[in-house]
Amino acid sequence: MPVTRGQIVVRGLTHCCPNCGAKTLFQPGRLIALNRECPACGLNIERDEGFFLGSMSLNYGITLVFILSPVALLWYYDELSDRTAAVLAIAGAVVFPALFYRSSRSWWLMSYYFFLPQHLPANRAGTSAGGGGTS
Questions:
Q1: How many whole angstroms separate alpha carbon 75 and alpha carbon 13?
Q2: Per-residue pLDDT tens for 39-74?
Q3: What share of the chain is helix, strand, coil (3-state, %, to 5)?
């Protein structure tokens, strides 16, 4: 059965494989170790060399908009002292991206397949729902 865009979004938000829905994007017991492919259906998670750059850009953008910009604005309008703003900015620039890593990887994969759902093996004509590992 084909995977809908709604399913792709839900699977992306819950860090599940966009193809089969199994919770297999990351290696069990490891904080940031991404599987190269889904152990359940064989979907190639790291599609091409450099595919991770999109998730890094997403992570950077979210950090900039939701962490660094508010700190800069509060500092600019003298709501924060120089030292406090610097500490918050440095801490936010280091801690938040580390905490957001898994989500940014999952959301980038979700974004890719949301716009190109036909690249999922489950959505290719003439293949089974679990479908091969190359995409």
A1: 33
A2: 999 999 888 888 889 999 999 999 999 999 999 999
A3: 55, 5, 40
Tokens encoding 50: 């450099």
Domain ranges of the chain: 5-123
> Is residue 109 within 8 Å of residue 21, measured between CB atoms?
no
Q: How many other CB atoms sit within 10 Å of the CB of residue 81?
A: 10
* Opening angle at CA 98, ends 51 and 90, nearest 5: 120
- Would you say residue 33 has pLDDT above 50? yes
Local structure of residue 32 (DSSP, 8 states): S
What is the C-alpha separation between 81 and 92, in angstroms, rounded? 16
The model's pTM is 0.82
The burial of 85, by beta-carbon neighbours within 10 Å (0-12 exposed, 13-18 middle, 19 or more buried), is given as middle
What is the rounded distance in angstroms from the CA atom of residue 68 to the CA atom of residue 42? 38
**Phi, psi for 58 (deg, rounded to 5):** -60, -45
